[in-house]
Design brief:
Order of helices and strands: HHHHHEHHHHE
Shape: flat
Structural class: mainly alpha
Largest sheet: 2 strands, antiparallel
Distance between the termini: 29 Å
Low-confidence stretches: 3-11
Strand order of the largest sheet: 1-2
Strand content: under 5%
Helix content: 55-70%
Number of helices: 9
Length: 319
């Protein structure tokens, strides 16, 4: 009788796989949104709208009327961090409540949840260092890491719990991994370009001292390399008869082309704020498309259910 009550208590608030996927997807969207709003803070010169951290001013945790629109924009972005954190917390609690327990989900959910306050702390350091461009770049890359973890969680929820099986030959998996590494390098160099440009986030913020022309050329070269590798993946996957990976690679090429067009237009039009913001959104989409290609090179199959498994354990994890 005690055992029956224990089982009933453990599944009193069951969380379906469908709900778990929606929460994981919401976490991706929320983290992409905060990257875009963070860009809006910088592009409107509101980076020091709240001149200190964790308070907005030395006397207040919130903005004041004297701080004007810049204070509202910066403080609003800080409030969004709490909303993103709440979504991550809800996802973590859903993972804990989900039955049967899924292998690998808890670590990813914890990584997303802890990544958000870590990213917020780095954001606070950017304010305390008067928007040091290297710290600002690290702030952006920290957000990219959280997005990658959220994407991994979303895909892992979808996958069964069986072993991962490669669906393309080893050399193509290596090519996909190399493409991912180059994609990360493009993001890193992109932060250097931003740190050398005019959008400092505040009129008094320093730049990183790199020559904008030269570092922009390095960034463009890395983008061309990424695009070439992505096109190679399309043809290689098709030659191997891997329809799913080929489709993911086509999407990646399309996103890269769109991002490239925005990048060139913003460069030759003196970096208008609206296009720079669109370019930041494009960076998130390129990262997600790259991860999609990497995930498509293998698949997980349902794990065999032991004959002695309980009825709860016999429920398919992807039901």
């Amino acid at each position: 009788m005690r055992r029956i009550r224990s089982v009933k208590r453990s599944v009193r608030f069951p969380v379906s796989t469908a709900l778990l996927r929606r929460l994981a997807y919401a976490s991706i969207v929320a983290n992409v949104a905060i990257v875009v709003t963070g860009g809006a803070v910088r592009l409107t010169a509101s980076g020091l709208g709240c001149p200190t951290w964790p308070r907005c001013t030395d006397e207040s945790y919130h903005t004041t009327a004297e701080m004007g629109v810049h204070g509202v924009i910066e403080f609003g972005n800080r409030l969004l961090t709490f909303a993103v954190g709440l979504i991550a917390l809800a996802t973590l609690l859903a993972v804990l409540a989900h039955r049967p327990r899924r292998k690998g989900l808890l670590g990813l959910a914890v990584a997303v949840f802890l990544g958000i306050p870590a990213q917020a702390v780095i954001g606070g350091i950017t304010v305390l260092t008067n928007l040091n461009p290297w710290v600002v770049g690290l702030h952006f890359l920290a957000s990219m890491a959280v997005i990658a973890a959220a994407y991994a969680l979303w895909r892992r929820v979808k996958d069964p719990d069986g072993p991962a099986v490669a669906v393309v030959p080893g050399p193509l998996r290596t090519l996909a991994a190399l493409t991912t590494v180059v994609g990360v390098a493009v993001l890193v160099v992109g932060t250097w370009v931003t740190g050398s440009g005019p959008h400092a986030g505040d009129g008094g913020a320093a730049r990183n001292g790199l020559d904008p022309e030269q570092i922009s050329q390095v960034h463009a070269d890395a983008v061309f390399l990424l695009l070439g590798l992505s096109v190679a993946l399309v043809f290689a996957f098709r030659a191997a008869g891997a329809t799913g990976p080929a489709r993911a690679a086509v999407v990646l090429v399309a996103v890269e082309l769109g991002q490239g067009v925005i990048g060139f237009v913003q460069y030759f039009t003196d970096l208008p704020a609206l296009l720079v913001g669109a370019h930041m959104l494009g960076s998130c989409l390129v990262l997600l498309a790259t991860l999609s290609v990497l995930w498509s090179t293998r698949e997980r199959r349902p794990a065999p259910v032991p004959a002695t498994a309980s009825p709860e354990q016999r429920i398919p994890a992807t039901a």
